[in-house]
Amino acid sequence: MGATRAQGMGLDLAAQGVRTLVSFGTCGGLAPGLRPGTLLCPRAVCDERGAHYPTDVPADLLEALPMARVVDVLLSVAAPVYEVAGKEVLFRRYGAAGVDMESAALARVAFERGLRFLVLRAVVDPYDEPLPERLLAAVDAWGRPRPMATVRALVTGPAAWVAAARLGRHFGRAQRTLAAAAAAAMRARPR
Q1: What is the C-alpha to C-alpha distance for residues 97 and 90, in angstroms, rounded to an integer?
Q2: Are 113 and 14 in contact (CB under 8 A)?
Q3: Does the N-terminal or the C-terminal CB of the chain have fewer CB atoms within 10 Å?
Q4: H or E stretch at 177
Q5: How confident is the model over 70-109, as pLDDT tens digits?
Q6: Which range of residues forms the domain containing residue 122?
Q7: Do strands 20-29 and 39-47 pair parallel, antiparallel, or not at all (unpaired)?
């Protein structure tokens, strides 16, 4: 997770000769009405410093991905956005439908190397639900749970258990969407 790892991965792939970078994963919802599992395909990616990168939105891929929702902008930030108020501020300031931490770094690599760039991100947390900060802090930089930190987060009370269950359901929806999108994209890939 994060811009530094995404940039490194993008540079490695570019050095291996790939022609297209794809930012594929999960995101937070900033726009009202985006439910967990919604697949976003933004026309552009921006970051908090004002960098703005157009993306490729291939018509043939969208035809193969009827679940994809084309949106204008996805915002990349340096740190997770936990609170609803923070999401509202970002939505108003940038007009972005979703938020992640990696897409702008990959877009920058694609732009600098003259590569095509595409984004497919599934919403995990909708705009009107806060993220349980203690639970997210219990995950390492690769998205793997750290057992003792998870236990400490859950012993804070019943609200932590409810939040964990809700987040797990949302993440499951996003994962199912991404699996279906990957399968559809592979079927649609030119041979």
Answers
A1: 9
A2: yes
A3: C
A4: helix 158-188
A5: 999 999 999 888 899 999 999 999 999 999 999 999 999 9
A6: 3-188
A7: unpaired
Q: Please report, for the domain that includes residue 165, its CATH number.
A: 3.40.50.1580
Element (H, E) at 153: helix 147-154
Q: How many domains does the chain have?
A: 1
- Which of 19, 183, 190 shows the shortest CA–CA distance to 115? 19
Tell the burial category of 62 from Cβ atoms under 10 Å away from its Cβ (0-12, 13-18, 19+).
middle
Distance CA 186, CA 191 (A): 10
Query: pLDDT tens digits for 154-178?
Result: 666 677 777 778 878 888 999 999 9
Helix (H), strand (E) at residue 118: strand 116-125
Q: What are the residues whose beta carbons fall under 8 Å from the beta carbon of 144, sequence distance 6 or more?
A: none
Q: What span, in angstroms and rounded, lies between the C-alpha atoms of 156 and 158?
A: 7
At 141 the pLDDT is 59
Residue written as token pair 């969208």: 62
Residue with tokens 């639900």: 129
- Confirm if 38 and 123 have CB atoms less than 8 A apart: yes
Rounded CA-CA distance 173/164 in Å is: 14
Task: Report the DSSP pairing between strands 20-29 and 52-54.
Answer: unpaired
pTM assigned to the model? 0.86
Considering only CA atoms, which of 149, 116, 110, 111 is closest in space to residue 133? Answer: 149
